[in-house]
Design goal:
Radius of gyration of chain B: 23 Å
Keywords (chain B): Signal
Protein name (chain B): Urea transport system substrate-binding protein
Number of domains of chain B: 2
Membrane topology (chain A): Multi-pass membrane protein
Number of domains of chain A: 3
Structural class of chain B: alpha/beta
CATH class of the largest domain in chain A: Mainly Alpha
Keywords (chain A): Amino-acid transport, Cell membrane, Membrane, Transmembrane, Transmembrane helix, Transport
CATH topology of the largest domain in chain A: ABC transporter involved in vitamin B12 uptake, BtuC
Strand order of the largest sheet of chain B: 7-6-8-9-10-14-15
CATH superfamily of the largest domain in chain B: Response regulator
Number of helices of chain A: 21
Helix content of chain A: 55-70%
Largest interface: A-B, 66 and 59 residues
Subcellular location (chain A): Cell membrane
Distance between the termini of chain A: 82 Å
Strand content of chain B: 15-25%
Structural class of chain A: mainly alpha
Number of strands of chain B: 19
CATH architecture of the largest domain in chain B: 3-Layer(aba) Sandwich
Shape of chain A: globular
CATH class of the largest domain in chain B: Alpha Beta
Strand order of the largest sheet of chain A: 4-3-2-1-5
Oligomer: heterodimer
Distance between the termini of chain B: 77 Å
């Protein structure tokens, strides 16, 4: 309870200082420039001057400047042109809403042209982050303390050794203390401590194998003495060994995640091309329609119901399925049904159709990329051992597998699935059993297109939402379906995932361009050997 | 009563006279060709330039046209198809008899139309930053050459950020390959060790950046300040930046400076996690000058959407178009030879508060700006070259073109004069 009280007292004292400074001209509360004096120097300062002010503010040890520094780092710090007073400004109404940077009290409004920004660049942002780190090491919130320790760990500022030692002594939380100890070790490595102390620090840092560890150690090895140098190179070797192991796991993960994207793009095609045998070049455009549906849904949510943003993708899913499915059925009824059994004509007609659809979208939405945001549960990453897994990719893998499972269930265990398979295997027999083959065709094509639309919702998260979106996936989709075996959903699954993993293992050695070429060559050779793909359909359906 | 009747009569007469004269003028227009893809993959970038040109022509007509005649835009769509660019260029010059053409985006489309402009002796204004290594009599390069974009950006990173390790990442085609070759030589010359340079190429439209971003992260963990110099082509940038943000690479740790990412490309991304990554251009929409404010206001009014952004190639067209107007006025004719002679030395205001001049090598002078991405999708200028930089057609950092200069004035009249041999005709002849 004592600390918040102290903070409040400090703030009150600051307000008083500010007030006296305003009234009495230059009242100095302590030796050296006071905090408000420093703050006022920020108005119109160049980068070097701002950096000096930030350093002085950090040296003041006054925790109340953390808010100001935070705002400076975020680019929210402005000064009023008329009197050079510094404020935190947020967009509001016609111009900006101003708050006092030290007290947080509201300070009225200002028009857009009345205030100017205190400009920051990358090196300033670094300095600000380090300063905030040192200042907030004793914050009551453990999350802030960890963030503070991590920013000191990154900056490795030798000045931070003292405050860190104090903070570690006072720290109750084990995980926070661990980060602080690493941060202190990093700071020691940059200080002029003795070799023995530094070698201890190397041990503390090398306890965790990560790329940051490697960076800190390698940076410290410049100009190190022999004993320290060999300790560092030993540690680095061990860390690199660990990293190499993890990087193999990382490649598998990347491969699975690329595979899941391929699976999503190809799975609709596995139905229209694989099951029905229609070479649908406009398949990619169904994916694109799904992505644009996501965009429209998000636009509406942004303008009318921002609180729904996190579920925008869930809302977009059924809509994308319905709209892309409806477009697909219209295509089947309008064009493709006249072209059954004429693959070349189908190919040309659907290719033309894909160009038309692209241009329609371009005319409706403009040629530029549209912004589709990521909901909070899909952004960011988490660490699993030495792996960095991004939430977006995890969800896409999960989503691809769910779509696949649902599709398998529909085909195996519903009457529609049964009819669909019956029609593909023997149309005339199915027809004489009373199945309306025309409608089954339309519904099957609609299902494949709808699934493509659903894929578009997921792909909008990782790719451009532009009229060209579909084009980049069409070739890959055909490759996956042909490689996996036409007419077999499981083949598509295995084909997509294995192509993904193969691609990702080749990429670090061969580069992205050559890697892709090698995969193509591999598929050509494979098709020579097994023309029907990985999982070939057997039986009468193949002969017809 | 009589008075008013007479007045009315004369007013009608005057109006009729005006109508007649506009009718006469409508017959005698000066045609301006616009050769930008409105469909296909490049439509994303080029459609905006077509609109910008239409706006500039409309503004010029409101000012009274050119040489007493109205300007008339002739828009064709080469559909992102390189051979079609050449056909459409021919159609513009011989069919529509245009006085000048403003167009092209990719280098390959420019290369495809070069012979047409040479053969039919017409004018092309090319508005996009490119790899250099070219100077043609009929072409005016109003975008940046490598020394007006890439080299100052690298200098900035080395000086203010203290970068010692470099990733040169690009899309696999001629512009990134040539630019990276120039940059690699430049970096090696300035004392960077070969193992501190990583070069990486990706295919067009690359969308899975996980491995490459992880590689960059690993490359950046060698204890030296690392930066990425990106010549990644427009469309592949969105997934690249998304992956950078997802893997938590912040600009403070490993800054990325891009040469193909402008306001228009950022429009498709949430730039919150990208604050501080850089781009080098000769113009940013955020430039605080009255000319720029006016240009943006006019653009928003023309396009009817205040959310639309302006970008560097639009400024290049603004400069190129005004240079052409001034050169035609100076020559008193739209004849190609006369304009080629009169345009060298013409100087017009740019949008960043200075003047740009056409140089004898058909490149222009420009300020170089380095900007950091802000969370509203705009750039904030953090560095500006003190003076204007003259576009260099032939790079000083490639062994083949070191000795070449270009001067289209008489008596040299040569785009690739070799100063070592003293003859016209070196590389590219």
């Amino acid at each position: 309870m004592a600390r918040p009280l102290l903070l409040i007292l400090q703030r009150i004292a600051l307000v008083l200082v500010l007030a006296t400074a305003l009234i009495g001209g230059s009242a100095k509360a302590q030796s050296g420039p006071s905090v408000p004096d420093l703050v006022s120097r920020l108005a119109g300062a160049d980068f070097n001057e701002t950096e000096r002010v930030v350093e002085a503010l950090a040296a003041s040890g006054d925790a109340s400047v953390a808010r100001l520094l935070e705002a400076l780092g975020d680019g929210d710090l402005y000064y009023r042109r008329s009197d050079n007073a510094v404020f935190i400004a947020t967009r509001g109404g016609e111009g900006y809403l101003l708050t006092d940077p030290l007290t947080g009290a509201s300070a009225g409004e200002a028009g857009r042209r009345e205030v100017a920004k205190v400009r920051v660049n990358n090196s300033l942002r670094r300095a600000v982050r380090a300063a905030i780190g040192t200042l907030t090491l004793r914050s009551p919130d453990p999350a802030i303390r960890i963030a503070a320790a991590q920013s000191v760990l990154k900056s490795g500022d030798p000045e931070a050794v003292e405050p860190l030692t104090e903070a570690i002594a006072a720290e109750q939380n084990d995980s926070v203390r661990a980060v602080m100890e690493r941060a202190r070790a990093a700071a020691i490595l940059n200080s002029d401590a003795s070799d023995a102390v530094k070698i201890d620090a190397v041990k503390t840092i090398a306890a965790k194998s990560s790329q940051d560890t490697r960076a800190i150690l390698l940076a410290a090895s410049n100009g190190a003495s022999e004993a320290l140098g060999s300790a560092i190179s030993d540690a680095v070797r061990r860390v690199e060994g660990d990293l190499a192991l993890w990087s193999a796991a990382q490649n598998v993960w990347y491969g699975l995640s690329l595979g899941s994207v391929l699976l999503l793009a190809a799975i609709g095609l596995a139905i229209t091309f694989g099951v029905m045998g229609v070479i649908n070049m406009a398949h990619g455009e169904m994916v694109m329609i799904g992505a644009y549906v996501t965009y429209v849904v998000q636009e509406i949510i942004r303008n009318h119901a921002p609180f729904l943003f996190d579920v925008s993708l869930l809302i977009a899913l059924p809509l994308a399925f319905a709209i892309a499915g409806a477009v697909g059925m219209a295509i089947e009824r309008g064009i493709i049904r006249f072209l059954y059994g004429r693959p070349l004509e189908t190919l040309l007609a659907t290719w033309g159709l894909s160009l038309i659809l692209q241009q329609v979208v371009r005319s409706l939405f403009g040629p530029t990329n549209q912004e589709v945001g990521a909901p909070s549960w899909m952004s960011g990453a988490f660490e699993l051992g030495g792996l960095t897994l991004t939430y977006g990719r995890v969800w896409i893998i999960v989503f691809a597998l769910v779509v696949f499972a649902v599709l398998v269930l529909v085909l195996r265990h519903t009457s529609f699935g049964l009819q669909m398979r019956a029609v593909t295997q023997n149309r005339r027999m199915a027809s004489s059993m009373g199945i309306r083959t025309n409608w089954t065709d339309a519904l099957t094509f609609g299902l494949g297109s709808g699934i493509a639309g659903v894929a578009g919702v997921a792909l909008s998260q990782i790719d451009n939402v532009s009229p060209n979106l579909g084009q980049s996936y069409i070739i890959d989709s055909f490759l996956v379906v042909v490689f996996g075996g036409v007419g077999n959903l499981w083949g598509t699954l295995v084909g997509a995932l294995s192509l993904g993993v193969l691609n990702k293992f080749l990429e670090p050695y061969a580069g992205a361009v050559l890697g892709k070429i090698l995969v193509l060559v591999f598929i050509i050779l494979f098709i020579q050997k097994r023309p029907r793909g990985l999982f070939a359909l057997k039986g009468r359906a193949v002969e017809s | 009563m009589k008075m008013t009747k007479m007045l009315r009569g004369s007013a009608i007469g005057l109006a009729a006279g005006l109508l007649m004269s506009t009718a006469v003028q409508a017959q005698e227009t000066i045609k301006v060709g616009i050769l930008h893809s409105l469909s296909g993959t490049m439509a994303i970038s080029e459609t905006t330039l077509k609109d910008a040109m239409l706006m500039l022509i409309e503004q010029q007509n409101a000012k009274g046209g050119l040489l007493g005649k109205k300007l008339e835009a002739v828009v064709v769509d080469p559909a992102s198809d390189w051979p079609l660019f050449a056909e459409k260029a021919r159609e513009l010059i011989t069919g529509s008899k245009v006085a000048a053409v403003f167009g092209c985006w990719t280098s390959v489309s420019r290369k495809s139309v070069l012979p047409v402009f040479e053969e039919l002796n017409s004018l092309l204004f090319y508005p996009v930053q490119y790899e250099g290594e070219e100077s043609q009599r009929n072409v005016f390069y109003t975008g940046a050459a490598p020394n007006q974009q890439a080299i100052p950006a690298v200098d900035y990173l080395a000086e203010t950020e203290g970068v010692e390790r470099w990733v040169l990442a690009g899309t696999d085609y001629v512009y990134p390959r040539t630019t990276n070759k120039i940059l690699e030589t430049y970096l090696l010359d300035s004392g960077v060790a070969p193992e501190d340079i990583m070069i990486n190429y990706t295919p067009f439209g690359h969308s899975d950046w996980q491995t490459i971003v992880a590689e960059i992260k690993a490359f950046g963990s060698a204890g030296k300040k690392t930066a990425v110099v990106s010549t990644i082509n427009g469309d592949a940038n969105v997934p690249f930046y998304k992956e950078l943000a997802n893997q938590g690479i912040k600009a403070e740790d490993i800054p990325v400076v891009a040469f193909s990412v402008g306001e228009e490309e950022l429009a498709g991304i949430d730039t919150g996690p990208l604050v501080g990554h850089l781009a080098a251009w000769n113009y940013f929409m955020s430039a605080p000058t009255p000319e720029n404010d006016e240009f943006i206001a006019a653009w928003h009014e023309f396009i009817g959407d205040t959310k639309r952004v302006t970008n560097d190639p639009m400024e290049a067209h603004y400069i190129g178009f005004n240079m052409w107007i001034k050169a035609v006025e100076k020559a008193g004719t739209t004849d190609a030879d006369a304009v080629i002679d009169s345009i060298v030395g013409v100087s017009v205001p740019n949008l960043t508060g200075g003047y740009s001049a056409m140089m004898p090598n058909h490149h222009i002078t420009k300020p170089v700006l380095i900007g950091e991405i802000q969370d509203d999708g705009q750039f904030e200028t953090v560095f500006e070259t003190p003076g204007l930089v003259v576009g260099d057609a032939w790079s000083d950092f490639l062994p083949d073109s070191k000795a070449l200069i270009s001067d289209w004035r008489k008596p040299m009249n040569c785009g690739n004069f070799n100063t070592a041999t003293g003859k016209c005709g070196g590389k590219g002849s």
